[in-house]
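Bump. Still looking for Aspartate 1-decarboxylase structure tokens.
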Amino acid sequence: MQCTMLKAKLHQARVTHAELEYEGSCAIDGDLMDMAGILEYEQIQIYNVDNGERFETYAIRGEAGSKIISVNGAAAHKAQPGDRVIICAYANYSSSELINFKPRLIYMAEGNEVKGSSNAIPVQVA
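Sorry for the wait, here they are.
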């Protein structure tokens, strides 16, 4: 059995650039990519907290330490600098891989500073 699971998440990162005429879809600070385990050219989904847009694209490596989150090409119509976004990567896992499965969850503060990390989302209460 294969199951698609959340592999990685950058939670509430801030868009720093929206470049309509730039090749490549979403440039992410290389340090943040490494921390989250997102690979260059990996398919990602982006959820814009500020305007409700949800779209799929791929990650490209931005300059390490730059804190860049640049939404590029056609996707630039869906996010503007300052927007809060959730960037997710998913992967397929076998039953045996799920035994020890833990996603990488990176929580962002203003300025795209990392404020924490986890491998489990807290239980939502009513």
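The longest strand covers residues 2-14.

Edit: fixed formatting.
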